[in-house]
UniProtKB/TrEMBL annotation:
UniProt keyword annotation of DNA damage present: no
Keyword annotations of the record: ATP-binding, Cell membrane, Membrane, Nucleotide-binding, Transport
UniProt-annotated location(s): Cell membrane
Record membrane topology: Peripheral membrane protein
ABC transporter domain residues: 7-257, 373-623
Family listed: Belongs to the ABC transporter superfamily.
InterPro entries reported in the protein's UniProt record: AAA+_ATPase, ABC_Ni/Peptide_Import, ABC_transporter-like_ATP-bd, ABC_transporter-like_CS, Oligopep_ABC_C, P-loop_NTPase
The protein, known as: Dipeptide ABC transporter ATP-binding protein
Pfam families, per database record: ABC_tran, oligo_HPY
Listed SMART domains: AAA
Organism: Paenibacillus hodogayensis
């Protein structure tokens, strides 16, 4: 293989009101032709800035490459005129962004934008030739009816289909290097598996090199030839994938790997977490940038920055590589502790210092436990369009005839692809939206029969943690006011009592008291989620709905929040409905799990039983799509074919039959009964798995 991309000691600066801010420093790595390299690290580590530097997209964001060289197939990118740069983009290198809607112009059709890209880089290609190639590419990336999709606008395609269309546009000029920036982060596990399988196939077909940016180490284990680990704007380690996962040389890499929640994670123990959070680029610590969070840190680490040195064909920037290696091979489950030093304080404090080292998360999965929520034949439809005839108005069947219970003290997990109705079910459960039909009882009281005042009073006992902690708060309010809002709404405390209660809540969720007078934008994503959790538990509710509460977080921060939720559940005797598409995390936190598909519950079972012995073919396919963060256990991506149908026009009979490998004629004609096949294990399938 020949070297395609070579970055040598690249630094990038952005102009700000306070002067130049260095986003990455002395970043060096290379990519061979046909090789897949993964950039991994927490948010704020510099991964995206590095990828944009290769494309020189930072020029559009008030940034510049302040030093270093970037060579693409021997051509120096740094200092290249824009005209020459435009000829390289698309033809030599192309980029797939995390958010596909941001890559397409919403006022033009998909076809027009792909055709325009092809003709811009090859003016000899006619419009009809470009259109034929666009159809081929859409078909090649797995989009059905490509001729029809060419005429559609971006908003008419689902998330997974739009991501495929963006990949097709990126491949339209057959680039030699494809840069994919978190291309699967916002996608369901099934669509993620389809996209990863597609990238692997296209890499082989077009002999491309891929630079994949991800914070999911399971993806890196399955798709990467080499992994480059970044922290606070610097490369701290790089190695072949098998070597890095088997024996990390940097404490940060070791911490990331230990933070992963897997199918084998012990539910009776806390998840491993890296203490603290990634530092701000405007306030970096001296010496090794990781030393305030490192269990091996010494005085040398605080005063001297280690160089990125080669060792046995791999690189690491750490003074204590030998100690890290020793801890990996040692029998002790935790790293060897180095001499402690006084580190800069972080906002997160250890809220578990007085509790047991291992928490029992057994919950109350016994069927005899007292019921908190009882849901019977719950349905939620959203009418749309107009009809000339009464009773024929069309509707989106978001939730259809759902029945289940949530028991006091348990965590009930809810999984399924986007569009399956999980979030709608959660909102209807809390009566944030009124059901079309059916019954929701909370502690035996029918919520639909309560008056507005009574329902508001009842809501003190039912709170919600949102997926986007920043979008769920007023950015103009200080944290003290945000957390104290429930007290203002429901009364009962004077100003002094409210402040005392808020400070206690901050301590409970692991934030220091100085957060009281700060604003949300001053906190990291994980810290903002802690603020949202503090607000949710302010009134000491009986029930908390966590709607994708950890889905957008890095693996290390995700582990911190999961541990916090588990601890609060025990301390405050909470009951949770935990909605998520990270199946390993849902398995870890849940006592029982419900699986939804196209508005209907298709399976409910105790957590371990569901994952070890799934009965529904959809559940089995979801589990098979989970990336495995162990390179030597790589497998073929077990992607479910096709996408979830429209809830406005669901299939007859079993709704999963159009994608089910075991579907029969009976499945098309007869809706399966939701029945018990084992104690506490229910499934809606004519022919359950094994």
């Amino acid at each position: 293989m020949s070297q395609l991309l070579d970055m040598e000691r690249v630094s990038v600066e952005f102009a700000t009101g306070r002067g130049a801010l260095q986003a990455i420093r002395d970043v060096s790595f290379s990519i061979e032709a046909g090789e897949t390299v993964c950039l991994v690290g927490e948010s704020g580590s510099g991964k995206t800035v590095t990828s944009k530097a290769v494309m020189r997209l930072i020029d559009d964001e008030n940034g510049k490459i302040s030093s270093g060289t970037i060579k693409l197939d021997g051509v120096e990118i740094v200092g290249l005129p824009q005209q020459a740069l435009r000829s390289l983009r698309g033809k030599k290198m192309a980029m797939v962004f995390q958010e596909p809607m941001a890559a397409f112009d919403p006022v033009f059709t998909i076809g027009r934008q792909i055709v325009e890209t092809i003709q811009r880089h090859d003016r000899r290609t006619t419009a009809s030739e470009a259109k034929r190639r666009a159809v081929y590419l859409l078909r090649r990336v797995g989009i059905p009816e490509p001729e029809l999709r060419l005429k559609q606008y971006p908003n008419e395609l689902s998330g997974g289909m739009l991501q495929r269309a963006m990949i097709a546009m990126a491949l339209s000029c057959q680039p030699e290097l494809l840069i994919a920036d978190e291309p699967t982060t916002a996608l369901d596990v099934t669509i993620q598996a389809q996209i990863l399988q597609l990238l692997q196939e296209l890499k082989d077909e077009f002999n491309m090199a891929i630079l994949l940016i991800t914070h999911d180490l399971g993806i890196a284990a399955e798709i990467a030839d080499r992994v480059v680990v970044m922290y606070a704007g610097q490369v701290v380690e790089q190695a072949a994938t098998e070597e890095l996962f088997a024996e990390p040389h940097h404490p940060y890499t070791q911490g990331l790997l230990q933070s992963i929640t897997t199918m084998d994670s012990d539910r009776s123990k806390r998840l491993y977490t890296i203490p603290g959070s990634i530092p701000s680029l405007s306030d970096l610590p001296g010496g090794c940038r990781f030393h305030p969070r490192c269990p091996y840190a010494t005085e040398q680490c605080a005063s001297e920055a280690p160089a990125l040195l080669s060792r046995d064909g791999r690189q690491a920037a750490c003074w204590h590589v030998d100690r890290v290696i020793a801890s990996v091979t040692a029998t002790a489950p935790t790293p060897l502790q180095a001499e402690p030093i006084s580190s800069p304080a972080v906002d997160t404090v250890d809220v578990d210092s007085t509790s047991e080292p291992a928490l029992a998360f057994a919950g109350v999965s016994r069927s005899s436990a007292e019921v908190l929520f009882e849901v019977r034949h719950l349905t939620k439809h959203y009418p749309y369009g107009r009809s000339l005839f009464p009773g024929t108005k069309k509707s989106i069947q978001a939730v259809e005839d759902v029945s289940f219970t949530i028991r006091k003290g348990e965590t009930f997990g809810l999984v399924g692809e986007s569009g399956s109705g999980k979030s709608t079910l959660g909102r209807v459960l809390l009566h944030l939206e009124k059901p079309t039909s059916g019954s929701v009882r909370f502690e035996g009281r029918e919520l639909g029969a309560l008056s507005g005042a009574r329902l508001r009073e009842e809501r003190k006992h039912m709170q919600m943690i949102f997926q986007d902690p920043y979008g769920s708060v007023d950015p103009r309010w200080k944290v003290g006011d945000i957390i104290g809002e429930p007290f203002a709404v429901h009364g009962g405390l004077n100003a002094g009592g409210k402040k005392e209660a808020v400070l206690e809540l901050l301590r409970l969720v692991g934030l220091s008291s100085n957060a009281y007078d700060r604003y949300p934008h001053e906190f990291s994503g994980g810290q903002r989620q802690r603020i949202g959790i503090a607000r949710a538990i302010a009134l000491r509710p009986k029930f908390v709905l966590a709607d994708e509460a950890v889905s957008a977080l890095d693996v290390s921060v995700q582990a911190q929040i999961v541990n916090l939720l588990q601890e609060l559940r025990q301390r405050l005797d909470l009951t949770f409905l935990f909605i998520g598409h990270g199946l390993n995390v849902v398995r870890y936190v849940s006592d029982r799990i419900g699986v939804m598909y196209l508005g209907k519950l298709v399976e409910i079972a105790p957590s371990e039983q569901l994952f070890r012995r799934p009965a529904h073919h959809y559940t089995k396919a979801l589990i098979a799509s989970i990336p495995v963060p162990v390179p030597d256990r790589q497998r073929q991506f077990a992607a479910i074919q096709g996408e979830i149908p429209s809830p406005a026009n669901p299939p007859s009979g079993c709704r999963f039959r159009t994608r089910c490998p075991a579907a029969t004629a009976r499945c098309a004609e007869e809706q399966p009964e939701f029945r018990e096949i084992a104690p506490d294990h229910l499934v809606a399938c004519h022919d359950p798995v094994g």
